[in-house]
Write a structure and sequence with these properties.
Elements lengths: L1 H17 L4 H29 L5 H29 L2 H22 L14 H20 L9 H23 L13 H32 L3 H6 L2 H21 L3 H20 L12 H30 L5 H38 L2 H6 L4 H7 L7 H13 L5 H37 L20
Length: 461
């Protein structure tokens, strides 16, 4: 039932965003779409626990994790393609149309439960506090570098309000007789480790995927369109990683710690190797594009394994009563990590790029450019992907007499160099975050957790 409600809500929200006529409408209807998306993701994972035995969940959660991983990479690329060739609102209208057959298939083929669980009192105060905690933080993080700076009063105010509401949410959940998020689930070491690792790896992956096309263009000289298609190896790696991890858990037993350590190590190694591509020397410099694809596959194998392993570990560690809550916590941390990753990496890149351009761009060229042109590029480095931006910079230098075409090309090369160094800084931050997730994974139980059916419990819940 909730899965169907989630799909309907998602379709309605997507369609309304596509038909919006103002930014306020877009923001409001995106909230509706997000509610539906959250319901779909959580119900999809929880349904595996409802339909399959603990020892069989691994292979199915592996497939589900592979689909999630593919969507993480394909979604932004397809969205950018549709927005460029049609319009931004067509992105949401196409999503709404794609949801219709998904709704029909769910209604027609999803198994009906033999019995319904007992009704529970809803935790309305907890729901309200959670929304008031998450919404301001999400708004602040998405506005950094777009509407406000990191240290702006608006940003600090939103983050402070969100933190206060988060503290209130914790108090409410401790006192509630039927909490929406029973905090005692975090006494379970498997659940606690899983949410932290999920948060760190999601921060890294979302920031990594966001800036890959820009890196291919600036550092490796790949044109804009092929730069987006070069993410294809990540799809293969994520699918293989998730399915392989799920199959291993089903066939070889629930050795979560070992699989999680291997997966996070692969992810960290791939990101580290990728961050060294722009450095001089090294065997990878002979064929940087080829090695970049190899490093992407290594990274993707690791992330696919992380998603599948943690999904199985959390579901099998929690009792049937808490499977939904634990799974929702995992999905929440995945989404929160994505928001934090995009905001944090964007801030690191812009700051590093601004510092780099201050050093590399000559003063005479800077003063000859139209007022605000260079500053706009420094605030939005991705504008360098647009050929029109490069042409505008060339024409401005030639027409103002600051230099000839050679000087203009030198400016563009300087900007690309500054951008490459900024992106290397971003990738360094990201692989360090994954390395931290490896250290956190060491705290997972050494022995396989006891599988839980309808009534089993792992110590701590």
């Amino acid at each position: 039932m909730f899965l169907v409600i989630g799909i309907v809500t998602f379709i309605a929200g997507s369609a309304l965003v596509g038909l919006s006529t103002s930014m306020n409408q877009v923001i409001s209807f995106r909230l509706v779409q997000g509610i539906g998306s959250g319901m779909i993701m959580t119900c999809s994972y929880v349904s595996i626990a409802d339909l399959f035995r603990p020892e069989d969940r691994g292979k199915f959660l592996g497939v589900l994790g592979a689909l999630y991983a593919v969507a993480t990479v394909v979604g932004p690329v397809m969205g950018a393609f549709v927005a460029e060739w049609l319009s931004w609102y067509w992105v949401f209208l196409i999503i709404a149309l794609a949801g219709v057959p998904a709704l029909a298939l769910t209604v027609r083929f999803y198994p009906r439960p033999n019995s319904l669980p007992p009704q529970r009192e809803l935790d309305y105060p907890g729901m309200a506090a959670l929304v008031l905690a998450v919404a301001p933080v999400a708004l602040a993080l998405s506005s950094i570098g777009v509407l406000y700076a990191w240290d702006a009063r608006e940003t600090i105010g939103l983050l402070a309000f969100g933190a206060a509401m988060a503290a209130l949410f914790v108090v409410i959940e401790f006192r509630s007789s039927s909490p929406i998020m029973p905090l005692r689930i975090y006494r379970n070491r498997t659940v606690a480790v899983a949410v932290v690792v999920t948060l760190l790896t999601s921060v890294s992956l979302h920031g990594f995927v966001l800036f890959l096309p820009l890196y291919f263009h600036a550092a490796l000289g790949v044109s804009v369109t092929p730069a987006g298609t070069m993410l294809a190896p990540m799809l293969l790696g994520m699918v293989l990683g998730a399915i392989l991890a799920g199959q291993l858990l089903s066939r070889a037993g629930s050795h979560y710690r070992m699989q999680l350590l291997v997966s996070t190590a692969l992810m960290a190694a791939g990101m580290y190797l990728f961050s060294t591509l722009s450095e001089g020397g090294g065997f990878a410099q002979s064929r940087p594009i080829l090695y970049s694809q190899i490093y992407l596959v290594i990274t993707a194998l690791g992330f696919g394994g992380v998603v599948a392993t943690l999904s199985v570990a959390v579901q099998n560690a929690a009792s049937f009563q808490f499977v939904g809550v634990a799974t929702a916590a995992l999905q929440f941390c995945r989404s929160l990590g994505g928001m934090v990753g995009l905001a944090a990496t964007g801030g690191v890149m812009v700051q590093s790029f601004r510092s780099g351009t201050d050093v590399t761009v000559p003063d005479n060229v800077r003063s000859a450019l139209p007022e605000g042109l260079l500053e706009s590029v420094k605030e939005d480095p991705q504008a360098l992907l647009d050929p029109a931006t490069a042409q505008t910079l060339r024409e401005a230098i030639v027409e103002t007499g600051a230099g000839d075409v050679t000087v203009a090309d030198g400016l563009l090369n300087s900007l690309n160099l500054a951008l490459t160094e900024a992106l290397s800084d971003v990738f360094t931050v990201l692989w360090v975050a994954v390395a931290l997730s490896f250290l956190v994974a060491l705290f997972l139980n050494m022995r396989p957790a006891k599988l839980n059916g309808d009534s089993g419990l792992e110590a701590g819940i």
